[in-house]
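Researcher: Here's a chain I'd like modeled. Treat it as a single chain, no partners, no ligands.
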Amino acid sequence: MNNKLLPQKLKELRKINNYTQDYVAEVLGVVRQTYSHYETGKRTPDAEALYKLAGLYNISIDDLMHLTMNVDRNISYDAPVPTQSSTDLAEYLEFFNDPANKKKYQFNTNLEREMLFYFDKISEEDKKGVAQYVATLRKEIAWARVDVRKLRYGDES
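Model: Modeled as a single isolated chain. Structure tokens:
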């Protein structure tokens, strides 16, 4: 929001409705000088004052603060392009909502399903590489646990 628009809007609305600064200040529960500072931009109304001003002028707070975007009906606005993550999510949901896959993967955890979904999307060669990586990682984790046992318990097994 442009900080200069609200003060102009407040002054314009007050004059259109033939209100005095004293009257608007009284409605807001502030002194006239405070309200005058709202119109000059020296101060910004708090949320409660904005709510009261919107009610006084019978407009939305969005309109009061110029947050509403004016849409030109003669221009075609394109929807945003779906991101890769939204496309992946749509494919993931479609894949696991397929009755055959629903039954096939019904006992897998969500993490396992996610891994299987992405695993299904890679080449056979890459699948072999992933399998080898996981096997190696599993061995490293097993050895790390053995090392931790040795440190904790002095166990040589």
